[in-house]
Write a structure and sequence with these properties.
Layout (H helix, E strand, L loop, with lengths): L1 E18 L5 E22 L4 E6 L11 H13 L3 E8 L10 H17 L5 H11 L11 E5 L4 E4 L7 E6 L6 H10 L8 H14 L16 H7 L6 H8 L2 H10 L4 E4 L6 E5 L2 H13 L3 E6 L3 H6 L4
Parallel strand pairs: 3-4
Antiparallel strand pairs: 1-2, 2-4, 2-5, 5-6, 7-9, 7-10, 8-9
Bound molecules: cytidine-5'-monophosphate.
Length: 314
């Protein structure tokens, strides 16, 4: 039996680019893992034929092949050329369709737990490739920390970790369909959308992180504060444009998170929002403001890559 923390993520800015011929969208984002997690327990033993069962204590989570963790285990067994009897239990603590990648994280965690159970590993490139086929946000959970995500989001590059900030998550209790949010974005697009905004986003990321350990370049005052450098140049989540008009209360939650924060925004296509803070007191105050508005709030922190990996297996 292997139990893993299936940590979640936030997006520090997200730019949507033009639709692609395959129905996905080009995008650019910074992913950041955070300390909130679902607990997943996987048991697996070799068997003449593969059978997978999935259980979850949340009624909104499908327990069949529609579940990303189910899909990931099925694909991983095929790739490993192993047949096995696998049971997956998801102790769901995070919102479903919440924009913090919980379902995608479940898939990545399931692959890692399955490998541990069977004592077999996919190569890192095979694992990343498989993760990208399960979902655009799955590969980032095989990297962790602060990351740049491009293409459909599945091309993930580790960035020098941002320092660990206090984070407050607001969970408004409504699910947002990501495909629908992309369709709504398309509906408001000009005839020929440009790719320039994505290039601009990537350029800003490169400049903000220049001078960080492991990155050669002139170390200026931006060196210690890549997040602030990014925020100064405008770090927006394009999904706010389509999601806020449909869920006007989210604007008020964002304002409540913004006070005293380094940065606050919608995460992914929402409906979760987050604020980042230097001090616990600021985080506590933001959490109280969110609660006073009748919305669920959780205080956590951003997870650097080393902590993400060191604390994943329970
Ligand atoms: O990759 P994933 O299965 O998470 O994506 C879910 C849906 O979101 C896709 O089927 C697509 O409609 C939309 N999507 C998109 N562009 C992306 C990522 C997702 O249009 N970059």
């Amino acid at each position: 039996m292997t139990t893993v923390r299936s940590y979640s993520k936030i997006n520090l800015g997200l730019r949507i680019g033009p639709p692609r011929p395959d129905g996905y969208h080009h995008l650019a984002t910074i992913y950041q893992t955070i300390g909130l997690f679902d607990l997943m327990t996987v048991t697996a033993e070799r068997a003449p034929e593969t059978s997978i069962t999935l259980r979850c204590d949340h009624p909104g989570v499908p327990c069949d092949a529609r579940n990303t963790a189910f899909k990931a285990v099925e694909m991983a067994l095929k790739a490993l050329q192993i047949s096995a009897k696998v049971d997956i239990f998801i102790d769901k603590k995070l919102p479903v369709q919440g924009g913090i990648g919980a379902g995608s994280a479940n898939a990545a965690a399931a692959i890692l737990a399955l490998e541990a159970e069977l004592g077999e590993q996919l190569s890192p490139s095979a694992r990343l490739h498989l993760a990208g086929k399960v979902g655009s946000d799955v590969p980032m959970f095989l990297v962790g920390g602060t990351m740049l995500g491009i293409e459909r989001g599945e091309e993930t590059f580790p960035l020098p970790d941002l320092p660990s900030f206090y984070a407050v998550l607001a969970f408004p209790g409504v699910g947002v369909s990501t495909p629908q949010a992309f369709r709504d974005w398309d509906a408001g697009l000009p005839e020929n959308p440009e790719n320039d905004t994505l290039m601009e986003f990537r350029r800003r990321v490169a400049i903000a992180f220049a001078g960080q350990p492991g990155v050669s370049g002139p170390a200026g005052d931006l060196a210690e504060e890549p997040l602030l450098a990014l925020v100064r140049t405008g770090l927006e989540n394009d999904f706010e444009t389509v999601v806020f008009p449909q869920q006007p209360s989210l604007r008020a939650f964002k304002s409540a998170l913004e006070e005293g924060s380094l940065y606050a925004a919608l995460s992914g296509s929402g409906s979760s929002l987050f604020g980042l803070y230097r001090s616990e007191d600021e985080a506590k105050a933001a959490s109280d403001r969110i609660t006073a508005l009748g919305c669920e709030a959780r205080i956590t922190s951003t997870l650097p890559r080393s902590v993400y990996w060191a604390t994943m297996f329970v």
